[in-house]
Design brief:
Two copies of one chain form a homodimer. By secondary structure, chain A is of the alpha+beta class. Chain A folds into two domains: 3-75, Arc Repressor Mutant, subunit A, CATH 1.10.10; 79-112, no CATH class. Helices cover 52% and strands 12% of the residues of chain A. In chain A, a hairpin with a 2-residue loop joins strand 2 and strand 3 (70-75). Chain A is elongated, with a radius of gyration of 17 Å. At the A-B interface, helix 1, helix 2, strand 2 and helix 5 of A face helix 1, helix 2, strand 2 and helix 5 of B. Chain B binds a DNA duplex through residues 11, 15, 34-36, 39, 45-51, 53-54, 66, 68-71.
DNA sequence: GCAATGATACAATTATTATTGAAATATGCA
DNA sequence: TGCATATTTCAATAATAATTGTATCATTGC
């Protein structure tokens, strides 16, 4: 995955309604949902939902296919996986036990305590 | 993790230099790097790097601690893990084999072929 | 204390993105 | 064909984020 693709995908997710849409579709799996159901679920107008769905599609995170008079959107598992891989690549210089094991318990000194 | 925290973290990553910084720090693990080394590595001005580092810190993705006259930034493994978990929660309605196994080979009909 | 280095804060400009409603397109069915 | 439903496009406005240079703060060593 290239940097600008990753940026596009992250920017697509960095919006409350789009993030809700994405997470909703993640739970639904490959079968997905029609756009109208999605709009209702995230309390968006048809126009707004369409805009956001297009952004997520353009980013490669979801995929819409027409199904009769509906357009059914589903998560793109490949797109999701590629993004997650890109974010975590070469974690801890080939010592991932630093991430998975020990470090999980390191006390953070950050201002952002919640994280 | 709350929605607005996730949006903040994703927005922080949705920027080329910040994404480069994050990935650089992911490879470095808990020891991290001084801000000046980071600025040089991603070809940012000191001012620019400081701005971006602050954004990532505010988002809970990295953590800066003063080390003499340097400020050393390291990835926040907790923050990273929480974000990834938030994105993939309840994947495929409790049938994650849809994500991990079969679905990996489903042919996508998306316009975005690369993803 | 003072100079040097590393890092941050501030403010102004510029660029990008979100939002909204009206109009247009696509499909299914009588 | 013509109507109803689902979805998208377009255009205008509003809101938000990025960029840059200057000034300021923090730490070390003389």
């Amino acid at each position: 995955m290239k940097e600008d693709q990753a940026v596009t995908a992250l920017a697509a997710l960095a919006h409350p309604q789009r993030l809700r849409i994405f997470r909703l579709l993640v739970t639904k799996g490959p079968s997905g949902l029609p756009a109208s159901d999605i709009a209702e679920a995230v309390e968006a107008s048809p126009t707004g939902a369409s805009f956001h769905l297009k952004e997520l599609d353009r980013a490669g995170l979801i995929c819409g296919t027409r199904d009769g008079r509906y357009v059914r959107y589903a998560v793109s598992v490949e797109g999701m996986r590629k993004l997650l891989t890109y974010l975590t690549e070469d974690c801890c210089q080939g010592h991932p036990e630093l991430c998975g094991g020990t470090v999980r318990r390191v006390r953070s000194l950050c201002k952002s305590k919640g994280a």
